[in-house]
Amino acid sequence: MAQKRKIKPKKKYIGAHVSISGGIWKAVESSVAIGGHAFALFLGSQRCWTRPALDTAAAVKFQEACAQHGFDPIHILPHGSYLMNCGSPKEDVFSKSQNMLVDELSRCSALGLSQFNFHPGASIDSTPEKCMEKIAQAINHAHQQTPAVITVLENMSGQGSTIGGQFSELRSIIDSVRDKTRVGVCLDTYITTNYLFYINNVYIRKHDALRARGVKTFEHDEDVYIFFIF
Ligand SMILES: [Zn+2]
After folding, report:
1. Family per UniProt (predicted)?
2. Ligand 1 mean position to 22 CA, how many Å?
3. What are the tens digits of pLDDT across the range 39-55?
């Protein structure tokens, strides 16, 4: 049972990607249990393109738990399904990904969350330029279909044909998103190993550096997120 702990205002909010096993509100309890001030979570199974509708009672429980423990929605960042490839050259995969993005943003709204983070996509046998155009197209479509949730693009390691290994690629996508108030970037500090720099006065350090300084991080969590929005 998670203790009833209210988060005090801080300059930095640090947390982990927590499980939703047993119910989406369990993510809040898990974050409290490990002393998180922020958290990331999946909004459903990573194995299925179609998911059961979000249970209204579960959504209410999630919002109540957030309020009880003092988690502001701005410090909660859902992570998109790994199945999604909004830049896929395959029409069926693109279409399913586009629909899933709309579904994910709708779930965020129902949970009272204001941001949604996802891996931009991969060009496979297409070109990076075409891939980036498709990603922006999927984002624009999702913005039209859903209320004000902000789509947050995560930077990537640049493996294979993935987009987002270069900040210029994220910039290209953002340039083609019509509503600039609804797009941002999540910097994955685990893979951004070559960068140590300041953004908005936040010193971005890699995972190991945080742990060495005694900040509580976890062996199985690959990502330590520090959030910012352009
Ligand atoms: Zn990620």
Report:
1. Belongs to the AP endonuclease 2 family.
2. 22
3. 999 999 888 999 999 99
> pTM of this prediction?
0.82
What are the structure tokens assigned to 141, written together? 């479509």
- Distance between Cα 121 and ligand 1 center (Å): 11
CATH superfamily, with its number, for domain 15-228: Divalent-metal-dependent TIM barrel enzymes (3.20.20.150)
Please write the tens of the pLDDT for every residue from 195-223. Answer: 444 444 444 444 455 445 544 433 333 33
- Record the tokens describing residue 130, joined without a space: 């075409």
Separation CA 60–CA 66 (nearest Å): 10
Q: How far is ligand 1, taken at its centre, from the CA of residue 169, in Å?
A: 16
Radius of gyration of the chain (CA): 17
Separation of CA 79 and ligand 1 centre (Å): 7
Sign of the CA dihedral running 63, 66, 70, 76: negative
Residue 26, phi then psi, degrees to nearest 5: -65, -25
- What is the whole-number distance in angstroms between the Cα of residue 159 and the centre of ligand 1? 13
| Token reading at 124 | 């496979």
Q: Where along the chain do its domains lie?
A: 15-228
What is the model's pLDDT at position 4? 62
Q: Which two tokens stand for residue 220?
A: 């199985």
**Angle 54-57-58 (CA atoms, 0-180°, nearest 5)?**
60
Tokens 């995969």 sit on residue: 93
